[in-house]
Amino acid sequence: MKLMYFLKITILISIGLSSAFALNEDVVYEQVIEQIEGKKQCVDEQNDSSDFWKLRKVKGVFNALAGDNSPYWVRYSKFGCKLGKKGSLVVAPGRSESSAEYYETALDYINLGYSPVYVIDHRGQGFSPRLIENKHKGHVHYFEEFIDDFELITDEVIAEVQAQAQDLGKKRQKMFLTTNSMGGGIAVAYLERVGEKNPFEKVVILGSMIKVNYASFVKGKALKTALILFGEPFGYLRANFNCLIGKCEDFATETFAEFDRNSRVFKENEISMMTHSKNRYELRNYLWDKDWKAYFGPESYGENENWENLVLGGATNQFSRSTLAINLRMRRAKNIRKMSDVPLMIMTGEKDFRAYRENFDGTTDLSPHSDFCKKVNRVRGTNQCRFVEIKKSFHEIYKESDIYRDYAFKTIDAFFMDKDTGDKSQGLN
What we know:
Elements: H1 2-17, H2 28-37, E1 41-43, E2 49-51, E3 53-62, E4 71-79, E5 87-92, H3 103-112, E6 114-121, H4 144-167, E7 175-180, H5 182-194, E8 202-206, H6 224-229, H7 232-244, H8 278-289, H9 292-296, H10 317-330, H11 333-336, E9 344-349, E10 357-358, E11 364-365, H12 367-380, E12 385-390, H13 402-416
Parallel strand pairs: 5-6, 5-7, 7-8, 8-9, 9-12
Antiparallel strand pairs: 1-2, 3-4, 4-6, 10-11
């Protein structure tokens, strides 16, 4: 039995190392930094060059920080030079993530045939301006603003892609959507909002914010009291109470608060690292520490930016209650019915401590995600949702070690292209 397990893992590792589309984990840190620092260029048939990575902004709903009706400019990144043969891709990252952290992911998708890749910097994080004076607090006034921004950017990039496709004599370019963590909650709420006007061929959400395991934000062992006090009902009541007494902009938990650079030290096989990959973990540290204002130039920044780099600490009470409210709402049957029949894949790591359910006996399961997928199919009377569990993977699948990450890419590519992966086991065993 152990021999068969070893052989299976060895084969999977060999497949991962031979992936033509992906950078090898051992060199990803150096190669991504080299491309960023060298400002990788696109060169067309006429030898005209342009930046491979372009940082853009779009006017969103008003900026509450300014105290008036001044617009809020939310940013996003465009990676790639020309239209991919398989289609183009929009990426909605997780809480605290920036579009810069998806440089490697964009490279891999482009090599698979999906280009350009557009990655959003959600309101109040990444390259988008902060919303309150403390630049290290994860804050949003209303979660719906994330959805508003996502819809604005999606409309803009799809118009651009389709215009480019028509210029090339193509009828249309296929558009796909993938997300991580909080981005999955934004995607589900967006799909419920736009209904049959959904522009995406297929959607894949990874480690999604469907029902968050808030006990994972507490240091130490999750005791029975913690599992109750940090469940959704009590979490919502606590955040509401704190807002009522004037603490909306305070951190929601004391143990997950101010960003501490000294705490960003990789620990092997530690679930709180959210990845098994030291190199990809260190790459994120590099991206968080970099002086991006100097990199892009002062002309890239306007008034009320209120940030210095990409680092972000914990979330505020207002963020928490707004997020909990949208989570509860988007799981209701009446809202699920508003979705179109867009094929949806929910992909989650077995050891995703932000997503799994912790039981009083110490066991865990991914029923919050698998049950939501079943509910989509039941409520809509379809088989549009497929749940995929990646055995032993942590939360950050797009930043995981090659063995998990390559499996995810191959499964997603097969799903996008209507190909049977031949794998009925729902992940690595």
